[in-house]
Amino acid sequence: MSDRPRYAGLYAAIAALAAVLISPLLAMSYFATSDGAEQLENGSVSAWADPGRDLVGGLLDWASADRVYSTYLQAFALLFPAVFLCARAVRARRPGDVRGSEQWGWRIALVGYGLTSLGLVAAFFVLFSGDAASVALNVVFLGLLVPGMLISVIGSTVLGIALLRSRFSPKLTAWLLTLSLPSMLVIPSVLGHNSLGLLPMIVAWGAAGFQLWRGTVHAAAAVSGELSAAVAGHGETQLCFAPGLQ
Predict the structure, then answer these.
(1) What is the distance between the alpha carbons of residues 18 and 94, in angstroms, rounded to a whole number?
(2) What residues have CB less than 8 Å from 64, skipping those under 6 apart?
(3) Which of 5, 90, 179, 239 has the most crowded CB, counting CB atoms within 10 A?
(4) 187 and 24 in contact (C-beta within 8 Å)?
(5) Is the sign of the CA dihedral 55, 59, 65, 68 positive or negative?
């Protein structure tokens, strides 16, 4: 196993841990902006955000509200590409003959992850202006992030269900991917920010990335490939010795 996929796995594992810390800060900093303040009128949002802001106050008021929000969004933008890179590395280690829902799940998910990553990288550079309400950021959001996130959660859910059926390891990855669509529909509505809805997906690939870093995803794929080859060879042998059945 080359070092590049292992480093992609390590990147995903670190990104998942960082996202667990950064996503709540990103959400709370958004609530301090003029665009996000209305979210606090939702009781389920204020129930966690108000005590949260009291707890981490110094991490949210070190600059203007827009600058703080822009900085945490830029930090989050550096994390999500790990999902795309890790998913590609894991896909390369799956058996080459996957079909049906898993094949389509990979295709849809990777397109979504790529679009979302591209949108967040574009947002990273746009936000150097410190204006979280700029026209350029709105264009990036509507043109790349919205379709990217939508495609990502649909593809992740299809893929997660297929991986559960194929007994993919780690199971946590398959389960969290399966829950991607309901998570994205429910969590932002209840907690107030899209980054929190993406957390299950990011943690899913963080778990897979950790195994990729350790080399166990590669080993599982290799074993699966050997078993497929053995079954195919066994079938050919049976055909050779049973010409009367042809």
Answers:
(1) 27
(2) 130
(3) 90
(4) no
(5) negative
CA distance 246 to 234: 16
| The model's pTM | 0.84
d(CA 192, CA 43): 10
Tokens of 79: 């994390």
Identify which of 149, 205, 221, 199 has the alpha carbon closest to the alpha carbon of residue 173: 205
* 209 close to 82: Cβ distance less than 8 angstroms: yes
Low-confidence ranges of the chain (pLDDT < 50): 218-246
Q: Give the three-state DSSP class for 32.
A: coil
- Return the residue matching tokens 């309400």: 133
Structure token digits, residue 60: 């949210």
Neighbours of 123 (CB within 10 A): 21
Distance, CA of 19 to CA of 124 (rounded, Å): 16
pLDDT per residue as tens digits for the range 123-142: 999 998 877 778 888 899 99
Q: Angle at CA 35, nearest 5°, toward 33 and 122?
A: 85
Helix 100-126 to helix 146-165 angle, to the nearest 10 degrees? Answer: 150
Distances (CA, A) of 77 to 122, 130, 153, 167, 224: 9, 15, 17, 31, 35
Q: 């746009």: which residue's tokens?
A: 126
* CA-only gyration radius of the chain, Å: 21
CA–CA distances in Å: residue 203 to residues 41, 75, 86, 243: 29, 16, 12, 53
